[in-house]
Amino acid sequence: MIRRKWPSFRSWRMIGGFLIFLSILIFAHLDLYQGLTQSGSLAPNIWNDTLDRILAEQAGPQRAIGGGLTGAFFFMILYYLFGYYGALLFTSLLALAGIMFLTGFTLKKGVVWIRSLATQIQSHFAQGFMRFGRFLKGRMIFSVQKRDESSTEEGSSSEKPVIVDFAQRIHSERDKLGTEDRAPSEEGKIIQGSLPLWEETKGEIKREKEVEEEKKEGEEDLQEREFRSYDLPPYTLLDKPKRLPSRETRDIANNIQKLEQTLKSFGVQARITNVHRGPAVTRYELQPDIGVKVSRIVNLTDDIALALAAKDIRMEAPIPGKAAIGIEVPNEHVSLVTLREVLESAPFHESSSRLTIALGRDISGEPIVGDLAKMPHLLVAGATGSGKSVCINSIISSILFKARPDEVKFIMVDPKMVELSIYNGVPHLLTPVVTDPKKASFALRKVVQEMERRYELFAHAGAKDLERYNQMGGHPLLPFIVVIVDELADLMMVSPADVEDSITRLAQKARAAGIHLILATQRPSVDVITGVIKANIPSRIAFGVSSQVDSRTILDMAGAEKLLGKGDMLYLPVGSAKVTRIQGCFVSDREVEALVEFIKKQGEPHYAEELVTGEGEETTESSMEDDLYEKAVQLVIESQTASVSLLQRRFRVGYARAARLIDMMEANGIVGPYEGSKPREVLVSKRDESQIS
Description:
By secondary structure, the protein is α/β, with parallel strands linked by helices. Among the domains are: 12-103, no CATH class; 350-605, Rossmann fold; 615-692, Arc Repressor Mutant, subunit A. It has 26 helices and 16 strands. The strands form three sheets. Strands 9-8-16-15-14-10-13-12-11 form a nine-stranded mixed β-sheet. Helix 14 (437-461) packs parallel to helix 17 (496-509). It is flat and about 110 Å long.
């Protein structure tokens, strides 16, 4: 009823259910006739006794008949061939095989699960010992300080803050891995020595998926068969993270003392409970006493920055989920977070989504990853040089490390012509990297048409989204489509109405169709990030901006103007009321080139012809359809002036239609290109009017 077709009775799950049912019947007879195994000729006793019990049940009280005639028949055969214990062993194996067929669970998965459980137990013990060691170290440092300082007030709290350094977390993660790097062999396959547990699991999932695809005969098209032997890129293409030097906590202890003394000098009673040192900033968790208003502490931001001699500080009042106020102070040296260490983290490998993206590490050192399928669209904005382009490269690289070309497709728009052109030739592309803003607007409209086509397929098949449609079978599998626009401001300058309409429609409806948007801009103003666009893109990333107005344009809240740059970002995921401060992961151009070169060797891109079609063809067709085009051309030639407002006044049409008429004239060589505040040049004189008509 759900899939509108008869179920398949020859599937592995049906066979597994039949084997489990048969083993239950045999087990019932094993239990019932255990006392008869001493008999020398047991075969007739089993059958006859079962018949007697069935007949006696009709005449008298109910009696146990085991597995019935079916159970007696198979038990008699097994007992005659293998004996009692052999029949017991064979039936147990039969039940185990039925469970494996029914659930898809394999013995290798069981071994992997046991290993993961052992690794988790080991990591919990290791973290416990590390916490205890940090606690003892902190107590020793503060006891030495207390001995040196004779002027300690009586009312000061005896509890000392716990200092957590993110470098210790990274060291523990690397020690817990204790693995060798995976590297491609001469044949291009991945050789796995002592691989991390999640890499073995990923290879197992990949092989199982290939087996499942082989069962779906007639569903794969040419591209799917071509990329069936595709190997995911190894992490050896990326640079190893450098060992972080151990840092002393004496500077942090001095800052704690300065903070408490500064607040006390202004009459604010509060104490530091925890300190988290992150890659770029250190957060001091301040717990005010009862009766102290949060606004009093927030108003002392400049005074605290003066006392700590810091560049700028940011306050988070209160910290989500904690009864404390966060004071974020920039570190003297910013630690580099590499893409490889985030990709090798457990959260990235535990995510089964092909659209998992690596973002970086938060203040506590925890790896932060996101699922683009749940976002479902992402807005990235920040000033020039703040790390926006590196973030886009990290997102693209994360998906390339996770998905095959037949699972995820890209449409990249790069008006700057230098940022995303490195990905040309990757088999994941649906079209070459678009650098012309007009062609980009055309490509966005084609993506809208693809979205509508997919919804028609879903309606015909009775599916709600892309995942269910691909699970139903009987048709070629549809990949996810990720549309990346590296500079939205250029597109909004050329054709704002068309671009905004396409982005709005995609943001509203494209999630279920498997189409996701990533919009990036270095000019976060209201004419670029309009209210309609921002309302339909809930997930946002803000890098350093110049003013609080720009921060509110991106995040609807202040804070981005106090970021440090070089990958320091504020991440606002969908459904969250508070932002998360993250140090973005870094990937160099050399690493991206190595990744692209590895992927290019495994296949060539198959471009969609309808997306590569030029803008001029569509303009010519639309010019024939617009009945005002000839009149508009005549008006422009007679007046020797071409402007959108002129066409709006004379023909009483809207801005979109008038601008489209001007674009048609430009495509046909009647008027010149857009020159900013200057009027367009009319290229055709009155003498040539007869030739135009």
